[in-house]
């Protein structure tokens, strides 16, 4: 028997995987990912970048319509609903992060929910869970084709590369495509992959997630119509291999007995407690601990006593931003996040407002920051650490180090805290019934008859929110 090619093996696995192969661990972890993604997405509908994308997308029409999260009366063509909802998820950099490095959920869930609303078969909650996990799994497999992918990215934003492939695989699964069509969906999606890292820390970065969701969905639907791509797209260095310097692909195994080992079984995701690049969580924790030591010794936190703040962080150019002037730059700045933590004893959603960024006290503290990149501090979310040292005018030093923050896969967020994060984020847009409804549906997803019920709760906005944001200028 001829050995399957790598792309063919992916197509076969996407087609053949069934709900009975989902483990309890995978179901539990993926439901947590879904809930968090919806929460940060709902909060993200309050951002300028979301509203600009929404205004653009409203110029398109189609017979099929899908919900815009957090909008009670608004629908869009499915591709554009996936697009704007994906943008909302990443608009504040508040969404989950995996290892190797990517944001896995934001490219997949918006595509699936937009698609599910248009299907006559009305997928069940278990159908949605399976398709979601297929999309997550494909991303995890692809990232393991390169050792380069294990580090904080340097050239491109990973969700723009693996996210569109995950969206295509998940959409193909929900559509019930054949093996060959699943392979072609991946090949078609590969031609929409890629976004330069230079657009990180700008309003364009959230579009990487929105485009991945939209283009992956389109790829699957084009494959359903018979459009074909290269059937060996994952096998070739000139195919998906163009994105990695050390590309070494391998087949997606599926045994004759149906046994399957999900990557999510072994590798959990990280959930964020602040709306910023994941690396900021280490430096914020270290800064808060150093501040506490300083305050406990001196009796109060007096900015005028600080001569220097030294940050020892992994090398990464795009999150080394000494003097950020926008919220997106601030979300990608070791300096800003450490100084915000030192100054306020916390970092929150409001920390990234224009007023907070432009505070004279913050700018004064930023001028005292020195960044060091110790040789042993690897730019990997699995190996990095951050150390913050405060030096006073009297020569006293207060130092703290964070190796693992709360919310990292080594120190997972409790279910109570995850639900609390969702509730706080979602209640900024939804009424109480909507918030509680989403929590209930996600919590019982494997038993829900029609997954589209989720969209009805995502439209239950508070009237106050709709009135305020309908008047807000873009």
Task: Describe this structure as you would to a colleague.
By secondary structure, the chain is mainly alpha-helical. Helix content is 47%, strand content 6%. The chain contains 19 helices and 6 strands. The chain has helices at residues 6-16, 24-44, 48-57, 78-90, 109-116, 125-143, 158-175, 179-190, 205-224, 263-266, 279-298, 327-330, 334-344, 354-357, 360-366, 415-426, 432-443, 453-458, 463-471; strands spanning 66-67, 75-76, 306-312, 369-372, 386-392, 397-402. A 4-stranded mixed sheet has the order 4-3-5-6. The chain has a two-stranded antiparallel sheet with strand order 1-2. Strand 5 and strand 6 form a beta hairpin. Helix 1 crosses helix 8 (179-190) and helix 7 (158-175) packs antiparallel against helix 8. The longest helix is centred in the first third of the chain and has 21 residues, at 24-44. The chain is globular and about 70 Å long. Residues 467-474 have low confidence and may be disordered.
């Amino acid at each position: 028997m001829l050995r399957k090619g790598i792309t063919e093996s992916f197509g076969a696995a996407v087609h053949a995987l069934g709900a009975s192969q989902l483990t309890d661990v995978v179901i539990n972890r993926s439901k947590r990912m879904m809930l968090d993604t919806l929460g940060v997405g709902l909060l993200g509908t309050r951002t300028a970048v979301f509203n600009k994308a929404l205004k653009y997308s409203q110029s398109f029409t189609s017979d099929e319509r899908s919900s815009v999260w957090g909008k009670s009366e608004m629908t869009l063509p499915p591709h554009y609903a996936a697009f704007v909802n994906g943008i909302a998820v990443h608009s504040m950099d508040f969404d989950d992060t995996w290892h190797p490095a990517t944001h896995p959920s934001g490219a997949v869930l918006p595509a699936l929910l937009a698609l599910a609303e248009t299907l006559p078969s009305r997928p069940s909650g278990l159908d949605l869970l399976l398709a979601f996990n297929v999309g997550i799994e494909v991303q995890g497999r692809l990232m393991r084709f390169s050792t380069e992918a294990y580090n904080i990215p340097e050239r491109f934003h990973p969700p723009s590369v693996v996210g569109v492939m995950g969206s295509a695989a998940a959409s193909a699964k929900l559509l019930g495509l054949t093996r060959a069509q699943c392979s072609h969906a991946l090949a078609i999606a590969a031609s929409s992959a890629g976004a330069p890292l230079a657009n990180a820390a700008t309003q364009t970065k959230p579009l990487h997630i929105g485009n991945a969701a939209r283009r992956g969905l389109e790829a699957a639907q084009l494959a359903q119509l018979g459009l074909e791509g290269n059937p060996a797209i994952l096998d070739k260095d000139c195919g998906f291999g163009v994105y990695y310097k050390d590309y070494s692909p391998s087949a997606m195994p599926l045994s004759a007995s149906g046994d399957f080992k999900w990557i999510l079984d072994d590798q959990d995701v990280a959930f964020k407690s602040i709306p910023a690049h994941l690396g900021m969580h280490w430096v914020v924790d270290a800064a808060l601990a150093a501040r506490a030591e300083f305050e406990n010794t001196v009796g109060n936190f007096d900015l005028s006593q600080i001569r220097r703040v030294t940050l020892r962080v992994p090398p990464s150019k795009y999150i080394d931003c000494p003097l950020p002037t926008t919220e997106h730059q601030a979300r990608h700045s070791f300096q800003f996040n450490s100084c915000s933590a030192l100054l306020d004893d916390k970092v929150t959603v409001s920390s990234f407002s224009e007023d907070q960024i432009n505070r004279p006290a913050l700018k004064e503290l930023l001028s005292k920051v020195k960044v060091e990149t110790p040789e042993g501090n690897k730019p990997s979310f699995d190996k990095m650490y951050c150390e913050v040292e405060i030096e006073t005018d009297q020569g006293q030093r207060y130092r703290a180090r964070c190796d693992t923050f709360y919310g990292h896969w080594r120190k997972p967020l409790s279910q109570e805290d995850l639900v609390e994060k969702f509730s706080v984020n979602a209640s900024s847009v939804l009424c109480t019934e909507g918030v509680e409804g989403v929590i209930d549906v996600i919590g019982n997803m494997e038993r829900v008859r029609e997954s589209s019920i989720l969209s009805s709760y995502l439209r239950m906005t508070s009237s106050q929110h709709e009135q305020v944001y309908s008047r807000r200028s873009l």
